[in-house]
Specification:
alpha/beta, Rossmann fold, 3 domains, 7-stranded parallel β-sheet, 43% helix, globular
Length: 363
């Protein structure tokens, strides 16, 4: 006899949840916990999913996965609240890089450079490149996302056993936070793990599952690690039509910490952040664009719009459902097709060019 459940079971459980009075009890619970929070509806759906799992009385391993995932997420959110307003950069690279290697010195200088510009350095909390970046950044400017393994996996000496040391059971959650918390991603040479992370972050950005941020391939002067990979991307992926030429906009090769830092600072020189809002894509800007620049955008970037034109919105027009501290931002909004992230990065580069901004005299 098959162990497969009837597909109608899911719908049945919805009826059970409604008819048993559970929904009313859940509503009362959420009201008591969250009050008038705008997130109350989201919390309600979370609880309902747990109730449905309990009604189905699923396999114990399934239940433990859900328990550990929810618990790990909540604990990580709570810890990271301490650092919420800080800009952060995730640095990837080999844990096997020796302290005498020139790449170790490069990563240490990168951490020091990020700290000097008030950016926190996130790593996997290990040694090698990760330890070097934290060594340069110092504890106050470091975050370590360690992974719990069957054998001892201790964080590096900079973050070990501090509030800056987060431990994860699941790789997928750890990877989520590597990207979620990052305002930029710096990738140093490494092994399979580093290459996995490189391709994953590029895929997430290329497919729109993660916002466009600087992805910097960092190597020492004369180093050929990333040159070989970029050549492979060009000859085997781009020329065969597996990726677009514009996808190369999503990554930048850098040969020094100063060059990498300059890439990050330039990216955020006028551009602040982005989000979907009421079906439109919104770029938040520090300064408004001059009228000729807006016209240039409408001519040269219309291919990434599904309809209509690019519109510049004044800070005096309040954005619905936006955070209070962002209400003073200028906004460029449009109907983004969601596909051409490389072209979106080119648009961000354009709005960062100083000559395209309004001056105080004509603002």
């Amino acid at each position: 006899m098959s162990d497969d459940k009837d597909p109608a079971d899911y719908l049945t459980r919805h009826v059970q949840t409604s008819s048993s009075g559970l929904q009313q009890k859940i509503d009362e619970l959420i009201a008591a916990c969250a009050g008038n929070s705008s997130n109350a509806g989201l919390y309600r759906e979370m609880v309902l999913n747990i109730v449905r799992m309990a009604q189905a009385d699923r396999d114990r391993w399934d239940a433990k996965i859900m328990l550990q995932t929810i618990g790990e997420l909540e604990q990580s959110f709570a810890r990271l609240e301490m650092f919420k307003r800080r800009r952060k950069v995730t640095v990837f690279g080999s844990a096997r890089t020796h302290v005498d290697h020139k790449l170790y010195a490069l990563a240490r200088d990168m951490g020091r450079t990020l700290a000097r510009h008030d950016y926190m350095t996130i790593t996997g909390a290990g040694h090698g490149i990760m330890g070097a970046a934290h060594e340069g950044a110092g504890l106050d400017n470091s975050l370590g996302f360690n992974i719990t393994l069957p054998f001892e996996q201790r964080s590096n000496e900079v973050v070990f056993n501090t509030d800056h040391d987060l431990r994860f059971r699941f790789f997928f959650l750890r990877k989520l936070f590597f990207v979620k918390e990052a305002d930029a991603l710096i990738l140093c040479p490494g092994g399979f793990g580093t290459l996995d992370e490189t391709l994953e972050v590029l895929t997430l950005i290329q497919t729109g599952k993660s916002p466009v941020v600087p992805v910097i391939l960092l190597d020492v002067p004369g180093g050929g690690f990333w040159d070989g990979l970029l050549a492979f991307f060009k000859s085997q992926l781009c020329e065969e039509g597996y990726i677009l030429e514009a996808d190369f906009n999503l990554m930048t090769l850098a040969r020094s910490p100063d060059q990498a830092m300059g890439e990050i600072l330039n990216f955020y020189s006028n551009y602040h952040s982005s989000r979907w809002m009421d079906g439109r894509y919104v770029l938040r800007l520090h300064q408004p664009l001059a009228a000729p620049a807006l016209e240039t955008i409408n001519r040269h970037f219309s291919d990434i719009c599904t309809e209509g034109r690019f519109e510049q919105i004044s800070p005096t027009v309040r954005a619905s459902d936006d955070e209070p501290e962002l209400e003073g931002m200028h906004r460029l909004q449009f109907s983004f097709n969601g596909r051409h992230q490389g072209r979106l990065r080119a648009l961000i580069d354009f709005v960062n060019q100083a000559e395209n901004l309004q001056t105080p005299d004509n603002a």
